[in-house]
Amino acid sequence: MELATSRRLADELNVSAQLEFVYKFTYQARFDSNGSENELCHVFLGRCDVDIVPNRTEIAAIRFVDAPALARELKSLPGSFTPWFKMEWDRLSDEYGTTLSRYTRTDHPT
Fold first, then answer.
1. What is the pTM of this model?
2. Nearest 5°: phi and psi at 67?
3. In whole angstroms, how far apart are CA 2 and each of 7, 8, 24, 64, 82?
4. How crowded is the C-beta side of 19, counted as CA atoms within 13 Å?
5. Could you tell me if residue 55 is inside a domain?
């Protein structure tokens, strides 16, 4: 899984980074009459010190936001996030907060 994750990081963001596996989880989400998702997700954390240049065929936009601002946004605009991301963030920040704090950057604009 680490190899596949590194490959997708390069394909989607044009960066490489040493990644740390944190945990995996499953989720299901129904989308009205459009169908549903049933996913197994692996959560990795890493850091890169180069500019990120998204592959525009994979990613429409990126932005940087610090953890406290993200937590506030998740509470105030929950519909702006996918169901899996909300689940992931809750678990990552609650159960793996110490691990997450090792990857928090305070010198990046939000």
1. 0.80
2. -60, -45
3. 9, 10, 12, 24, 23
4. 19
5. yes
In this structure, what token pair is assigned to residue 28?
């299901």
Structural domain of 14: 2-101
Of 20, 7, 16, 10, residue with least CA distance to 48:
16
25-84 tens-digit pLDDT: 988 877 777 788 888 889 999 988 888 999 999 999 998 888 889 999 999 999 999 888
Q: Which two tokens stand for residue 57?
A: 């065929």
Identify the CA nearest to 5 among candidates 23, 21, 25, 28.
21
The token pair that represents 32 in the structure block: 């009205």
Residue 109 lies in a domain: no
